Amino acid sequence: MQTRSTKSLIVKTAEELILSYGYQGFSYNDIASAINIRKASIHYHFPKKEDLGIAFIRKYSRLFSLWTKRLGTASNRERLIAFCRMYGSLSNNCTRICPIGMVAADYHSMPAGIQEHSQELIAQVEQWLTELVDKGKKEGEFREYLRSSDTARHMIYVMSGSLKMARIFKEPGRIKRAEKDLVFHICKEKEQ
Amino acid sequence: MQTRSTKSLIVKTAEELILSYGYQGFSYNDIASAINIRKASIHYHFPKKEDLGIAFIRKYSRLFSLWTKRLGTASNRERLIAFCRMYGSLSNNCTRICPIGMVAADYHSMPAGIQEHSQELIAQVEQWLTELVDKGKKEGEFREYLRSSDTARHMIYVMSGSLKMARIFKEPGRIKRAEKDLVFHICKEKEQ
DNA sequence: GTCTATACGCTGATAGAC
DNA sequence: GTCTATCAGCGTATAGAC
């Protein structure tokens, strides 16, 4: 197991633990036993827990950038649906919530560095969605009366909320329903 | 300071701390210093932290029951708006989030007793909203195509999400916007 | 890079005096 | 009911050998 491998394995494990138990709900010891290394080795890669938290946020920020670039030539309606599906996949069969939902709830008990990076991640997603809604309106796919940025925020609230409730009640259908509600409210026709 | 007073003061303080920092983000020591008593005194009233967590959830459950009873003769539209306003007041000027949003995020790192009571609280609010939407549809105030329980859930997602984001970005306007969006989507006319 | 060993503060919790 | 005193355990974090 090489260095780079270990480092990304640590982040991957932290990621799973954070999205399941929250930032304060996991410890270096949890990671150490999960991947069979010692706590001190984690501190070598991430001296402070805050560093690991930031790495987690930044990873999702990069993943989202990559995801938007991979979309190619899809209609605005298709992009909207793709976003909901991608978001829903974070649920991991009702075991996890989304990064945004997690950092938003635990926000005030997180180190300042994580707070800043959280704001950036949320702003990044909001901006992408705002532009999507704006484009969808201009190109006649989305309802004209929508306010782009408010609709973008609305989408995040709904998808993020549905993941949390799906986990609590073990009802994956909540995520699908949230998607359908959003598509119906935002898109002009084809209620599907 | 009599006994009953101290007990309710402890719950009140726990409440503020939980809605700001989360269940794992506060300690008996935080409460003790906040109201100038010793940790052991808190353990007298609430032997385990879980007991205090449950008291917190149950208090909000009772408060919600009382709130719904105090509504009197209001139209369904007025009830919808009243709900959003009541919910928004939990924000406490962008310093707190809602009980549902908090327990939903930290769910898997909470003791089983708190999880159960959280489920009950959420179900209670969902049910009241479902009945409201149902009634609003039947009486012609709300849009007929809405599915009552999905709309109820949608409302919780949106209001709960808006409180969290309002806190992060210090934008109380997000809560008001969430309310207007919901009213517009659910009510038939008077876009306001 | 990974390990062993260790420091040390804070946590939830208990025993017992008043 | 509230206090002082105390506990074991776990948290993050560091030093230094290999």
List the helices and strands and how they pair.
The structure is a homodimer of 192-residue chains.
Chain A: H1 3-21, H2 28-35, H3 39-45, H4 49-69, H5 76-89, H6 99-106, H7 112-138, H8 148-169, H9 173-186
Helix pairs in contact in A: 1-2, 1-4, 2-3, 4-7, 5-7, 5-9, 7-8, 8-9
The first copy, chain A, binds a DNA duplex (18 and 18 nucleotides) through residues 2-3, 6, 27-29, 37-41, 43-45, 47-49.
How would you portray this structure in words?
Two copies of one chain form a homodimer. The first copy, chain A, contains nine helices and no strands. In chain A, helix 5 packs antiparallel against helix 7 and helix 7 crosses helix 8. With 192 residues, chain A is an all-alpha fold. The longest helix of chain A is centred in the middle third of the chain and has 27 residues, at 112-138. In chain A, 40% of the residues are buried. Chain A has a domain at 56-186: Tetracycline Repressor, domain 2 (Orthogonal Bundle), CATH 1.10.357. The first copy, chain A, has helices at 3-21, 28-35, 39-45, 49-69, 76-89, 99-106, 112-138, 148-169, 173-186. Chains A and B meet through helix 6, helix 7, helix 8 and helix 9 of A and helix 6, helix 7, helix 8 and helix 9 of B. Chain A binds a DNA duplex (18 and 18 nucleotides) through residues 2-3, 6, 27-29, 37-41, 43-45, 47-49.
